Amino acid sequence: MVERPLARQRLRLMRQSLVVSLSAFRLTLVLLTGLVFSFPSAANALDPCNNDRVLPVRKVIDARFPAWHLVTLSMLSDEDQRASNENRGTECPGLAVGNFDGSGRTQYGAFVKFGV
């Protein structure tokens, strides 16, 4: 007879612990969700198309061709994102910078998409 009250007490403690754990999980989930939606610039900071090298080109495209947008990693399929990361590392997939004609000047090649 002594074992039953101890088993009930253990069960009650386990339930209380579970309730506390679920409450902490819910609170953590709410806080993380709030952080994700309140700081979109954090996601943009990780975007390789949002750096000092690419922004001037994006500004020109936005000013001259407002319906066209430089392709970013998020616009690519999962497979294309993997290929871009493997081949280009952390570079923007929508921009190529180089000396393409041998003139010694920096030139740009842009991969743009209409109406995104």
Topology:
Elements: H1 3-38, H2 40-45, H3 55-64, E1 68-70, H4 78-88, E2 95-98, E3 107-110, E4 112-114
Antiparallel strand pairs: 1-4, 2-3
Offer a concise description of the structure.
The chain is of the alpha+beta class and 116 residues long.
Task: Write up this protein.
- The chain is elongated, with a radius of gyration of 26 Å.
- The protein has helices at 3-38, 40-45, 55-64, 78-88, and strands spanning 68-70, 95-98, 107-110, 112-114.
- It is an alpha+beta fold.
Task: Name the helicity range.
Answer: 40-55%
Q: Kindly report the spatial arrangement of strands forming the biggest sheet.
A: 1-4
Q: In one word, what is the shape?
A: elongated
Count of discrete domains = 2
Which regions are unreliable across 5 or more consecutive residues at pLDDT < 50? 29-43
What is the typical, i.e. mean, pLDDT?
Answer: 75
β content, as a range?
Answer: 5-15%
Number of helices: 4
Rounded Rg: 26 Å
Order of helices and strands: HHHEHEEE
Distance between the amino and carboxyl termini = 71 Å
The computed structural class is: alpha+beta
Main pleated-sheet profile: 2 strands, antiparallel
Number of strands: 4
List keywords for this structure.
116 residues; alpha+beta; 4 strands
